């Protein structure tokens, strides 16, 4: 409302009665005072609503009071009102204008209320200040400045706030993106090492060696999962990797193939599951991600399983004299009598710890790492073979298959030739052969070593070749006497150790084949050593100028040796006076006899026949030398001393 | 002289009746390289092989209307490989469930005097051609991509001329009869070659 002063309205007349007219005689005619209602109606008509007043409340209160006064006629008045509106009869009722005005005011108030409530939400409508020009010029410029400053500050603050909000949003997004990106880059790295494919919304990988030629039916699939169970707000641990792999439960943990050779075959009833002895999990290589080690371990388990499956299949299929036994996770075979080769698959899962394995510790020496390694090599060779055996047919229309197989018809192969195409040695056969060879080699080495340490006199030397085949290795055995290595080189043996037997090649080209039994080799070496002594005497005689009268490697006389034969030699001194006879047997040892000239024998009975002095040059009887009482550190040295003692002084 | 009787009984290879499942398509010369590239990725991991084959088609006409056809094929680039004699039966289109053309098939490896033998039997050479191309394998599926060359002078395989500007692509499996499952595998494989080549079962009767 404008600030115009309100007109005071009094509803009571100052005087009681109004003068209507003053007569000429000075008499006043009074108007009859208005009744209460008439007065009210008159006053009400005089209210000008378009002109506000300062005493609105008062007026409103009055009006209300009036309305209450008129409450009795309310209902009828309402009706009248309606009629009045309809009939357009103004002033039918004294409060008509008041009512109309109040009504319109109410309407406006309602509208104003609605508008305000809408404006308050700031959704559909906002209040904009009218341009400054509209303001009356008399506005205070300082206020204006203040308001404008306030406004611009508020605007700046809003811009800043918006910027901050955007920044926080982008920071959180970045963090999320970083994780996402890390996952993708990890996936890329994974992709470089492993075969992956997408199936539905999953990413599956291939652990199997199928692309390398494996025929193992295990699918070997692992699943690539996104590691999302980490809270973004918390600190990310060091080893956190956004990519994780889920491997099949049967490939978890670590596994290896254990090959061992035992001397005695245990009772089959005792055979049980081979216990694991624990191996520390392979440490992940620095720099390689955590999934790489996990997948490599799983792939190793898969390969071990494949090896074992292949071996057990062959063990059942192969017909051998002593059947191979497959019990639980163990394959038992007997390469040699009283020798047992056991191949077992040890698989430990990480979570399941068996307390038994800790107590029962296997001795590591019967654990053949070489064979285990070779098994891995063999299975890979096998894979390669299956890959390379797939040959493309030529001409192109021909069916797949081996070329020689297709040639068999046109070239009329016989059964043997066809069999030779098909036959291929299995993994088990190969590994048994290797085990036999390894066993034979170690037994040979043990035999030679024990002989060398037990027997001092002829010395035995073994020179093992460094480069061996898996099925063959060789050793050179030299038998010498200490101090006489240069002259006593008669016995040089080349031992070729194969799978089933040992071939011995002499220096002169003779070949002897020995079986796998260790005793045979030992007996052979013992007889060679005893022969060596006799050979040494022969060599020594040459050097000393003695004459060899007789020499025999195998003497048919004397006591029978249990091993081999005794050998003997007889040498005569340069002037022929003395003769030394040596008989050496592997078991009986050496027996040395010296023959003296006849004239030196005092106790010789005089013979009637040999009267002449010329017969004195005949040799006399033999006398045995007490060999163990001789000076000298070994046989050849003693012999040298004996020979020099019997030789005449040349000076 | 009376022509030898020609049996019209279905020819079977031994005890097992083998069938060839076949899908065919073709690519233009310029898109050969991308197809080869794709096949190398899809097929078994081995070095891709090329081949040059000489095929001769022999006919034996009897009283019946349709002659008996045998195909003799030899490799020109591999010495020592046996000749290949092949009988192919009438192709069956089959219904929609079978995704490949099926025909009876007998494969025999023979010695090199096959032509003389066939001539003696009364066969007559109908036509010959040289096929030159690439060979792939995926499991039991064989994929051959080759171009057919016309032989200008009969018998001289060095003097040839390309028949078309495109390569023939064949996806085939030889399996015992009734194993229609292989056709599903073939369909799946053909799907993977889709934008490069469309392998379909093509009824040769409709082309004639």
Task: Give an overview in words.
The complex is a heterodimer of chains A (651) and B (208). Chain A is an alpha+beta fold. Chain A has four domains: 19-70 and 78-121, no CATH class; 194-352 and 362-389, no CATH class; 450-530, no CATH class; 536-604 and 613-646, no CATH class. In chain A, 39% of the residues lie in helices and 18% in strands. Chain A has 13 helices and 20 strands. Chain A has helices at 36-46, 56-69, 74-87, 96-121, 141-193, 290-317, 355-359, 369-389, 403-408, 415-422, 427-454, 518-544, 635-646; strands at residues 19-22, 28-30, 195-199, 202-206, 221-226, 243-246, 254-262, 325-327, 330-333, 340-348, 458-464, 473-481, 491-497, 502-505, 511-514, 547-552, 567-572, 579-585, 589-597, 619-624. A five-stranded antiparallel beta sheet of chain A has the order 11-12-13-14-15, with helices on one face. In chain A, a hairpin with a 2-residue loop joins strand 3 and strand 4 (202-206). In chain A, helix 8 (369-389) runs antiparallel to helix 11 and helix 11 packs across helix 12 (518-544). The longest helix of chain A is centred in the N-terminal third of the chain and has 53 residues, at 141-193. Chain A is rod-shaped. Mean pLDDT of chain A is 78; it is low at 53-88 and 352-364. Chain B has 208 residues and is an alpha+beta fold. Chain B has one domain: Beta Barrel (Hypothetical Protein Pfu-838710-001). Chain B is 17% helix and 42% strand. Chain B has helices at residues 32-42, 114-121, 181-192, 204-207; strands at residues 18-28, 49-60, 68-75, 83-88, 101-110, 124-138, 141-151, 160-162, 166-176. In chain B, strands 1-5-4-3-2-6-7-9 form an eight-stranded antiparallel β-barrel. In chain B, a hairpin with a 2-residue loop joins strand 6 (124-138) and strand 7 (141-151). Chain B is globular, with a radius of gyration of 18 Å. The two termini of chain B are 33 Å apart. The model of chain B is unreliable at 1-8 (pLDDT under 50). At the A-B interface, helix 9 of A face strand 2, strand 3, strand 4, strand 5 and strand 6 of B. Chain A: Belongs to the Mediator complex subunit 17 family. Chain A: One of its GO terms (biological process) is somatic stem cell population maintenance.
């Amino acid at each position: 409302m404008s600030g115009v002063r309100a007109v005071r309205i009094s509803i009571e007349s100052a005087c009681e009665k109004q003068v209507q007219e003053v007569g000429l005689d000075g008499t006043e005619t009074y108007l009859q005072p208005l009744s209460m209602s008439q007065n009210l109606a008159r006053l009400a008509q005089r209210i000008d609503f378009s002109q506000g007043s300062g005493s609105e409340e008062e007026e409103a209160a009055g009006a209300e009071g009036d309305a209450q006064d008129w409450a009795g006629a309310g209902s009828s008045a309402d009706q009248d009102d309606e009629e009045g509106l309809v009939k357009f009869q103004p002033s039918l009722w004294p409060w008509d204008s008041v009512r109309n005005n109040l009504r319109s005011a109410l309407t406006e108030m309602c509208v104003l209320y609605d508008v305000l409530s809408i404006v308050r939400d700031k959704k559909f409508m906002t209040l904009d200040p009218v341009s400054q020009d509209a303001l009356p010029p008399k506005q205070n410029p300082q206020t204006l400045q203040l308001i404008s400053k306030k406004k611009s500050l508020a605007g700046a603050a809003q811009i800043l706030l918006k910027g901050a909000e955007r920044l926080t949003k982008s920071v959180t997004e970045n963090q999320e993106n970083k994780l996402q990106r890390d996952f993708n880059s990890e996936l890329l790295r994974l992709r470089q090492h492993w075969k992956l494919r997408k199936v539905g919304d999953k990413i599956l990988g291939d652990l199997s060696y199928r692309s390398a030629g494996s025929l193992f039916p295990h699918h070997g699939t692992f699943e690539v999962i996104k590691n999302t169970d980490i809270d973004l707000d918390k600190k990310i641990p060091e080893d956190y990797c956004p990519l994780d792999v889920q491997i099949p439960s049967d490939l978890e943990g670590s596994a290896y193939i254990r090959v061992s050779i035992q001397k005695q075959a245990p009772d089959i009833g005792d055979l049980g599951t081979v216990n694991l002895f624990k191996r520390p999990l392979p440490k992940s290589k620095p720099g390689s991600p955590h999934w790489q080690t996990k997948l490599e371990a799983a792939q190793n388990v898969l390969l071990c399983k494949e090896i074992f499956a292949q071996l057990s299949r062959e063990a059942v299929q192969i017909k051998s004299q002593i059947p191979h036994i497959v019990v639980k996770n163990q394959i038992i075979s007997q390469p040699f009598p009283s020798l047992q080769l056991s191949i077992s698959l040890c698989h430990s899962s990480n979570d399941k710890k068996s307390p038994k394995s800790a107590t029962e510790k296997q001795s590591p020496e019967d654990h053949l790492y070489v064979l285990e390694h070779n098994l891995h090599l063999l299975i890979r060779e096998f894979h390669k073979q299956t890959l390379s055996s797939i040959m493309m047919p030529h001409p192109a229309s021909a069916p797949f298959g081996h070329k020689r197989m297709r040639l068999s018809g046109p070239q009329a192969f016989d059964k043997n030739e066809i069999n030779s195409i098909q036959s291929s040695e299995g993994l088990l056969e190969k590994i048994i052969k290797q085990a036999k060879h390894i066993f034979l080699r170690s037994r040979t080495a043990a035999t030679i070593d024990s002989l060398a340490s037990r027997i001092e006199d002829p010395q035995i030397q073994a020179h093992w070749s460094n480069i061996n085949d898996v099925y063959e290795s060789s050793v050179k055995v030299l038998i010498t006497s200490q101090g006489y290595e240069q002259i006593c080189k008669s016995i040089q043996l080349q031992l070729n150790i194969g799978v089933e037997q040992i071939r011995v090649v002499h220096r002169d080209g003779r070949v002897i084949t020995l079986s796998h039994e260790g005793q045979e080799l030992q007996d052979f070496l013992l007889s060679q050593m005893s022969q060596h002594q006799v050979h040494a005497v022969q060599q020594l005689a040459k050097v000393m100028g003695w004459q060899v009268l007789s020499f025999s490697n195998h003497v048919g006389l004397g006591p029978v040796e249990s091993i081999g034969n005794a050998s003997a030699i007889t040498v005569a001194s340069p002037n022929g006076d003395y003769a030394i006879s040596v008989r050496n047997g592997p078991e009986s040892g050496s027996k040395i006899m010296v023959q003296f000239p006849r004239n030196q024998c005092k106790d010789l009975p005089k013979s009637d026949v040999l009267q002449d002095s010329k017969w004195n040059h005949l040799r006399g009887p033999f006398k045995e030398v007490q060999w163990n009482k001789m000076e000298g550190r070994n046989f050849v040295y003693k012999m040298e001393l004996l020979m020099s003692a019997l030789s005449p002084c040349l000076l | 002289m009376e022509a030898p009787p020609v049996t019209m009984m279905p020819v079977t290879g031994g005890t097992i009746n083998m069938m060839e499942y076949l899908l065919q398509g073709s690519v233009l010369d310029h898109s050969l390289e991308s197809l080869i590239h794709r096949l190398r990725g899809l097929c078994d991991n081995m070095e891709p092989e090329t081949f040059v084959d000489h095929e001769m088609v022999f006919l034996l006409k009897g009283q019946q209307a349709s002659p008996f056809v045998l195909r003799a094929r030899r490799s020109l680039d591999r010495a020592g490989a046996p000749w290949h004699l092949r009988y192919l039966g009438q192709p069956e289109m089959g219904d929609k469930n079978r995704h490949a053309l099926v025909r009876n098939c007998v494969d025999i490896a023979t010695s090199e005097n096959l032509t003389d033998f066939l001539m003696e039997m009364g066969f007559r050479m109908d036509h010959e051609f040289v096929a030159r191309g690439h060979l792939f394998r995926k499991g039991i599926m064989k994929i051959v991509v080759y171009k057919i060359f016309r032989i200008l002078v009969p018998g001289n395989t060095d003097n040839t001329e390309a028949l078309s500007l495109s390569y023939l692509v064949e996806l085939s499996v030889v399996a015992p009869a009734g194993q229609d499952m292989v056709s599903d595998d073939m369909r799946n494989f053909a799907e993977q070659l889709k934008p490069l080549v469309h392998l379909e079962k093509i009824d040769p009767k409709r082309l004639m």
